[in-house]
Amino acid sequence: MPTPAEIAKLIDHTLLKPEATRADVDALIAEAVELGTYSVCVSPSMLPVTVPDTLKVAAVCGFPSGTHTSSVKAAEAAESVRRGADEIDMVIDIGAAKEHRYDDVRADVAAVRDAVPTPTVLKVIIESAVLTDEEIVGICRAAVEAGADFVKTSTGFHPAGGATEHAVHLMRETVGPDLGVKASGGVRTLAQAEAMIAAGATRLGVSGSRALLTGAQPGGGY
């Protein structure tokens, strides 16, 4: 099993509450440095932020509904990168996925990919809890074809729920060994983190990182 320090290196330490303040983001960054997480993940309006070279910065895009037009998502992603984001976590059009319009999902992802080319890391949030297995597979294939670097389970905001071992395993099986898989939404304990990693996750989206890594009583949230 990975150690807590090793798990920390897989965590995007996340603060996406709409009432979050800049002081809250400053505290998030300080905690991320202390805990040794991989990155912080924030809303675009919080950029730019000041972080040490050891810490990456991720920003969300089309969040949390995914119903923004592709051109708006592309512009939002590009602005976030200009303002210092190293990684973009975009939400797909979930309605298109439910209608099995995978070509539209592919085009949506491709529009953002074109706006933020490599080396920017692009993660595609599929909201797996509202999808069938067939839909998860179809979306993951579309994300791969569009040039994504990661597929990601959830926003953490949908009432249907967040990450599951089953979804992570299916996503890993679909994208193969070379693409990243991020488990987010409801990952609050060390045991849950270990289970997601065992299922194939290579990144974790966590808001309560301290509680997870220390074994403290977990709180709610992302």
Automatic annotation (TrEMBL):
Keywords: Cytoplasm, Lyase, Schiff base
Enzymatic class: lyase
Location in the cell: Cytoplasm
Superkingdom: Bacteria
Pfam families, alphabetized: DeoC
Active site: 89 (proton donor/acceptor), 152 (schiff-base intermediate with acetaldehyde), 182 (proton donor/acceptor)
Keyword Lyase assigned: yes
Pathway: Carbohydrate degradation; 2-deoxy-D-ribose 1-phosphate degradation; D-glyceraldehyde 3-phosphate and acetaldehyde from 2-deoxy-alpha-D-ribose 1-phosphate: step 2/2
Xref: SUPFAM superfamilies: Aldolase
InterPro entries: Aldolase_TIM (IPR013785), DeoC (IPR011343), DeoC/FbaB/LacD_aldolase (IPR002915), DeoC_typeI (IPR028581)
UniProt-listed Enzyme Commission number(s): 4.1.2.4
SMART domains according to UniProt: DeoC
Catalytic activity entry: 2-deoxy-D-ribose 5-phosphate = D-glyceraldehyde 3-phosphate + acetaldehyde
GO molecular function terms noted in the UniProt entry: deoxyribose-phosphate aldolase activity
Family named by the database record: Belongs to the DeoC/FbaB aldolase family. DeoC type 1 subfamily.
NCBIfam families listed in its UniProt record: deoC
Biological role: Catalyzes a reversible aldol reaction between acetaldehyde and D-glyceraldehyde 3-phosphate to generate 2-deoxy-D-ribose 5-phosphate.
Protein name as it appears in the record: Deoxyribose-phosphate aldolase
Source organism of the structure: Nocardioides eburneus
Name of the encoding gene: deoC
